[in-house]
Design goal:
The protein has twelve helices and seven strands. It is of the alpha+beta class. The protein has two domains: 164 residues, 3-Layer(aba) Sandwich (Beta-lactamase), CATH 3.40.710; 131 residues, DD-peptidase/beta-lactamase superfamily (Beta-lactamase, 3-Layer(aba) Sandwich), CATH 3.40.710. The strands form two sheets. Strands 2-1-7-6-5 form a five-stranded antiparallel β-sheet. A two-stranded antiparallel sheet has the order 3-4. The two termini are 23 Å apart. The structure holds glutamic acid. Glutamic acid (GLU) binds next to loops.
């Protein structure tokens, strides 16, 4: 299996030059486009890995499923569902366009920024810093890695330049969908996106989702089974941004990507996979990462369809 992974990285390496590094967060443009790594944990406790699986990068949007898990653990499905929807577009079947005049919780998706910013207000904590620290703690626990830290430089870079996220957060405030101080909420969101992980961390977190909430190796229950189903279903339909349909066709497993170049894939009952290659396609997904998952899925019959 390690050889298969080496082979896949070799075959997909040319794709690392096809995408572009995210540069709207200036610090992310400093990544090395040549980095390419993969780490897999399988249900028989086997570990397979290849390439730069040890290199760290910021989690970015892959924190969204963890944020959703914490919101669910703190509030239960019903309350979370009242604030943040589950639909990919939230538009009716005959919608031509929808106006911001009618922004409703059903329009918010937890896997895109507006929904994630709203979710920061759902997690518990005295201050927004404490909320972030609880999220960081959960990330460490799911990854079985107590040394996971914030990337201060990326956090500050994103905080300085995050005008679009500010616009989204103020829109939420305008429609009464968040009531707390916008900058406090955003600070928690920017920190959340700047948690530093590696492929092994993503594989372990993915494995807990694949294994219905139980940790790899120890089998310890980390969160209730129904939350795994809830998160995986949303990852399947929305985890790869507006490339989720294409990804479902070509790879066929729940997954989440981030603009740091990571992808976490969840193969229900079988595997957690972490991949890293920072050059992105126009939708914000790692080009070589998706290619590698496509090859792997074909080889190992991973698609759930
Ligand atoms: N921190 C990034 C942003 O808010 C996350 C985007 C992503 O990874 O999709 O723009």
């Amino acid at each position: 299996m390690d050889e298969l992974l080496e082979q896949i990285l070799r075959d997909c390496h040319p794709y690392t030059t096809e995408g572009k590094l995210a540069n709207y967060i200036p610090e992310l443009a400093k990544a090395n486009p040549d980095d390419f790594g993969i780490y897999i944990i399988s249900s028989d406790d086997r570990i397979n890995r290849a390439g730069d699986y040890n290199k760290t990068f910021t989690i970015q949007s892959i924190v969204k499923p963890i944020l959703l898990l914490l919101a669910l653990m703190d509030n239960g499905i019903e309350t979370v569902r009242e604030h943040v929807g589950v639909e990919a577009t939230g538009k009716p079947f005959d919608a031509i366009n929808y106006s911001e005049q009618s922004l409703l919780s059903d329009h918010l998706n937890p896997m895109v920024n507006m929904g994630a910013i709203a979710m920061c207000t759902l997690i518990k904590g005295e201050s927004y810093l404490e909320r972030f620290e609880r999220l960081l703690e959960l990330t460490r626990k799911l990854a079985g890695n107590p040394s996971i830290q914030l990337d201060e430089a990326v956090y500050l870079s994103e905080k300085r330049t995050g005008s679009k996220n500010r616009a989204l957060a103020y829109l939420l405030k305008t429609y009464g969908m968040i009531t707390d101080d916008v900058e406090d909420v955003l600070d928690c969101y920017f920190r959340a996106c700047s948690i530093k992980v590696n492929c092994a961390d993503l594989a372990k977190i993915g494995y807990t989702l694949a294994n219905h909430g139980r940790a790899p190796f120890s089998g310890e229950r980390l969160f209730p089974e129904q939350y795994a189903s809830y998160v995986n279903a949303i990852l399947m339909t929305c985890g790869m941004y507006d490339g989720s349909g294409e990804f479902a066709v070509k790879v066929g497993v729940p997954a989440k990507s981030g603009v740091g170049g990571g992808i976490m894939a969840v193969v229900p009952t079988r595997m957690g996979i972490g991949i890293f290659s920072p050059a992105l396609d126009q939708k914000g997904n790692s080009v070589a990462g998706i290619k590698a998952l496509e090859l792997l899925s074909k080889k190992l019959y991973l698609s759930i369809f």
